[in-house]
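User: Small ask, check this?
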Amino acid sequence: MALQAIIRWLLPREDQFFDFLEKQAIVAHQGALVLAGSKDDDPKNVRTRVQQLEHDGDKLVHEVEEELAKTFVTPIDREDLQRLSSELDTVLDLTNGAARACDLFGVERPTEPMLQLMNVLVECTAVLKNALPMLRRHEYDKLIEEARVLKKLEKDGDAIYREAVSKLFHDPAVDAKVLLREKAVLEDLENAVDHCDQVAETLTQLAVKLG
């Protein structure tokens, strides 16, 4: 039996931390799904629904912090748990930011590039939702594979963002207010996708560290 496996066998199981992280990934995915459905919904309603999920995510972060404060031995390093929880929460925060921007700036229906980025975000959060349980099961090779998928999705999202912003600036028919409004929403969406890739980087580092 490998040393890491022996250590894991000897240490007490504190699986609630994995529960929290997995729930955070699920809530992040739910937020992305609600946002992607904004093409058929009122922006204010979408904002309200995503904001409620963001509040649910905040509660999970607090639960992680509370458990860390009273737990001596954790299944993975405390710093890694905190970082993962914080990064997952940021994905949801940025998703909420995009929903809020659509409502505040009067984007009644998302543009095609916005919808494309929303769909990429849905894919990214779906990968995270499926990948997080692999950490509990010590499936580190699979975790690294999922991180590679996220890296490709992040590049796809970046390409969509750059092309959309370039068209906005090069189209003389686009009003300045429209340009600023659409660019703000696109930035929030691109940042949310980008942060999914940051979660992937952390998962990769953990897989190498623990594997």
